[in-house]
Design goal:
- The protein is of the alpha+beta class.
- It has three domains: about 80 residues, Winged helix-like DNA-binding domain superfamily/Winged helix DNA-binding domain (Arc Repressor Mutant, subunit A, Orthogonal Bundle), CATH 1.10.10.10; about 100 residues, Periplasmic binding protein-like II (D-Maltodextrin-Binding Protein, domain 2, 3-Layer(aba) Sandwich); about 100 residues, 3-Layer(aba) Sandwich (D-Maltodextrin-Binding Protein, domain 2), CATH 3.40.190.
- The protein is about 45% helix and about 20% strand.
- The protein has a five-stranded mixed sheet with strand order 4-3-5-15-6. A four-stranded mixed sheet has the order 8-13-7-14. A two-stranded antiparallel sheet has the order 1-2.
- The protein is elongated.
- The mean pLDDT is about 85.
Length: about 325
C-alpha cells in the first residue's frame, strides 16, 4: 500500500508545512518524506509544493489535490472502519483537536484508556486554545467549550451541564482575606487569560437568579488557560475555570472552590465535526466514551465539593 502511504505523507506534509515536522509527526526521516513526495509527484506529473531553503508551500494544483486527497482518504478510512466494526473491532486513525487544559489534564488519560480498549486505533491529539479551522486542517473532531458559533459544523454534546467555578489552592486561601461576595475578588490576585487577543477579565457570576459582573485584575496574564490553572495550583491567586479542567485537583484537594454559592454559568463541552456523514463508527464510539467519562467525572467532583462545603459548615457551627 505504498501509494496510499505516500498520500498520507503528502497530507501530513501539507498540514505541517515542513518535511522535517511531517517526518517527526509520522516517525519518519525527512529524507523518507521527501522521497515519498517526489515519488508521488512523478506519478501525477505535476509539482505539489514550491520549495525554498526557508519555506514550503502548496502549488495551485497541490492545493486542489490536497482537498481531493483528504476527502478520498477519509472515505477509505470510513470504509475500513465499517468493515472492522462489522468484524467486531475498531481500527483506524483519529485526529482530535482539544483545548490545552482539558486535553492535558483529562482527555490524554482517557485517550490512553480508549487505546487500551481498541489497540488498532491510532489517535493524534492536537492541543491549542485557538480554534482549529476544521475545513483547512485534517482534523476529524474538535472539542470546544461553549455553544457553537459556527452553525455549519455538527455539534455533539459531551457535557452540556459543565460550568465555570472560582477556585484557589488551600495555601492561597488560608492567609488571604476571606471571599464572601463577588466584589471581594477586587482584593485578590485573579488569574486571567487571553483568547484571540482579548483579555477575559470580566467574570460573570450567578446565584439563584442573581447575576454580578466583576472586572478583575491579576498578575501574570497568559494566552494559555493551563498556565492560569498551574498558577492557581502554586497558590498565586484565584482562577475562574471550567469545572472539568480542575476536577482532578478538586478531588485531590489541591484546589478548593471559593464563593461556592456563586458559579460562572454553564459552559457546555461539545465535539465538533464538519459533516454528519463524517461521523464514522470510530468517531461515534470515541464520542460516547468521552461523554461517559465527562459524566462520571462531573458527578464525582460535585460530590467532593458538597462534602467540602458540609465540613466547612460543621467547623463554623463549632466555633
Amino acid at each position: 500500500m505504498k501509494a496510499l502511504n505516500d498520500l498520507n505523507i503528502f497530507v501530513e506534509t501539507a498540514r505541517q508545512g515542513s518535511f522535517s515536522k511531517a517526518a517527526n509527526s509520522l516517525d519518519l526521516t525527512p529524507a523518507a518524506v521527501s522521497a515519498a513526495i517526489k515519488r508521488l509527484e512523478e506519478q501525477i506529473h505535476f509539482p505539489l509544493f514550491v520549495r525554498s531553503t526557508r519555506s514550503l508551500r502548496l502549488t495551485g494544483d497541490g492545493t486542489l489535490f490536497l482537498q481531493k486527497t483528504s476527502a478520498a482518504l477519509n472515505l477509505i478510512e470510513e470504509g475500513l472502519n465499517e468493515i472492522n466494526c462489522a468484524r467486531g473491532e475498531l481500527a483506524g486513525q483519529l485526529y482530535v483537536s482539544a483545548p490545552s487544559d482539558f486535553g492535558r489534564n483529562m482527555l490524554l488519560e482517557w485517550i490512553d484508556e480508549f487505546i487500551e480498549l481498541h489497540p488498532r486505533v491510532m489517535v493524534k491529539l492536537d492541543l491549542s486554545d485557538s480554534l482549529t479551522d476544521m475545513y483547512s486542517q485534517p482534523v476529524d473532531v474538535a472539542i470546544r467549550y461553549g455553544e457553537p458559533a459556527d452553525s455549519s459544523l455538527i455539534a455533539i454534546p459531551l457535557c452540556k451541564s459543565n460550568e465555570r467555578i472560582l477556585c484557589a489552592s488551600p495555601e492561597y486561601v488560608a492567609p488571604h482575606a476571606p471571599l464572601r461576595e463577588p466584589s471581594d475578588l477586587l482584593q485578590h490576585n485573579c488569574l486571567c487569560y487571553m483568547l484571540s487577543g482579548s483579555l477575559h477579565n470580566k467574570w460573570q457570576l450567578h446565584r439563584q437568579g442573581e447575576t454580578e459582573s466583576v472586572l478583575v485584575s491579576g498578575n501574570p496574564t497568559t494566552n494559555d488557560g493551563e498556565v492560569a490553572h498551574r498558577q492557581a495550583l502554586k497558590g498565586k491567586g484565584v482562577a475562574y475555570k471550567s469545572l472539568m479542567d480542575i476536577s482532578q485537583d478538586i478531588l485531590s484537594g489541591r484546589l478548593v472552590r471559593v464563593l461556592p454559592e456563586w458559579d460562572g454559568g454553564v459552559v457546555p463541552i461539545y465535539m465538533m465535526c464538519t459533516d454528519r456523514r463524517a461521523i464514522t463508527p470510530l468517531i461515534r464510539t470515541f464520542q460516547e466514551f468521552v461523554q461517559e467519562k465527562c459524566c462520571q467525572q462531573r458527578q464525582a467532583v460535585l460530590a467532593a465539593i458538597e462534602q467540602h462545603c458540609q465540613l466547612n459548615h460543621a467547623e463554623l457551627s463549632h466555633e
